[in-house]
């Protein structure tokens, strides 16, 4: 899983019918300092994530398990809201 | 899922027979500013996407679900047409 | 799926027995201008691709479907010969 | 699989219920010199890994096998504690 | 699949029990000139690969098929020893 921030939503009227009712959240991957890493992806929300929240997302078949839609075209899903990151900073650059 | 733009089509007469009838769309990944990111991929259209349209695509097993061809060699599919991206720009670089 | 060019073959006498009879093609990913992108991979040919041909390849479980060897260690396969790429160049850098 | 170092934990009260009881370890990928490579991911611990330990992690469906939670949204898991890396340094840059 | 060189082994006493008996080979991805590309991964040997040998490895579910351990946490496996790479060099930079 990876950490990201919800930075928006994507509206698509014409879409796979198995996505109807799914909230498509624009999710920006971030690092442990909550800084932007790479480009945003579109993840289905499964935990009631709000705009601006720090979240955990999963990819691939795991995302369909998260959404409980195994036969769907979903390949990314938000599965948790981050309360806190306990980071041992002296380890992050340890040789 | 990711956001892309349909920039062309790929014609292949000699191909896996399970691809017959599939439209192979050249799909350019784009960022939230609709700028080019990385190299185009070939995705099967499942929603009637047109050249130039901004779309959502999915990858892996999810793409075979999208195409409803589970036993096929498809690993990327277009699953929605983007109407709008609601982006909270002040969040995109938030520390 | 992605576009590549067949640039060689790989010979391996000692290998997983489920690869016996599979042609292992050295496949160079290319962009829409047919320029080299990243490093070559080894893909199983399923369509009679020849050296130098522009092809479509697939990855992951999709490759085992292509080869019709679901229980094999194959994770990449050539699934089509590209006849033509219809590219709308004015879209490739569109904002 | 890849080698990483456990550099922290992630606390998430609101999450997929199938993650309850799973320890979410912030895992920094490292190279053979134990130097940082890329950004940390969130992996479920399945072997009792401690903060600062060098570990082996796996991704995708393999991670759900590791956690013995096949129907869960897990896509990364720690599956071993590294005792030693036997590296033949003269091979690392061999042409 | 990709080409790599076995550059060492990883010793892990505390590990997922389904890895017991598996040889964990430190595998350096290489290009067609046998030069280092990116960082090493940990792959399970299934063909009796030796230190220093040029090999073919596979990833994901394909690796569990290779190891014939479908329910295991394996996500990378060595599946062949490269005897020869027949490379058509004039094609590698062809436009």
UniProtKB/TrEMBL annotation, chains A, B, C, D, E:
CDD domains: EutN_CcmL
Keywords, comma-separated and alphabetical: Bacterial microcompartment, Carboxysome
GO cellular component: carboxysome
Biological source species: Alkaliphilus pronyensis
TM regions (residue ranges): none
Key word NAD present: no
Listed InterPro entries: EutN_CcmL, EutN_CcmL_sf
Protein name, per record: Ethanolamine utilization protein EutN
Localization terms from the record: Carboxysome
Superkingdom of this protein's organism: Bacteria
